[in-house]
Prior knowledge:
- The protein is built from four helices and no strands.
- The N and C termini lie far apart (51 Å).
- It has a domain at 33-81.
- By secondary structure, the chain is mostly helical.
- The protein has helices at residues 16-30, 35-38, 41-56, 59-78.
Amino acid sequence: MRKRRIIVRKRSRWTADEWEREWGFAMTRIESVPALVEQQPIFQDCLTVVDGAFVGGNRLRFELGLSALIDFCTDIVSTGGCEQWWD
């Protein structure tokens, strides 16, 4: 059996500008969110993850939370639950 090489990448850190840009992107989904969406437990969980990751400086966790937030919002709109509220 052939051994696979494992590549370990050094954790990269975002600059303040990168954090600001990504937080701004997250806010496009959070601001003006319809009450129907805001009350959903998944939306609240995504906010908790994104906020905690932002405060803790955890880039990977922030990206995962933001990805889940984007997917959830897109799914709600595509199923006809509400109109798109972001640009």
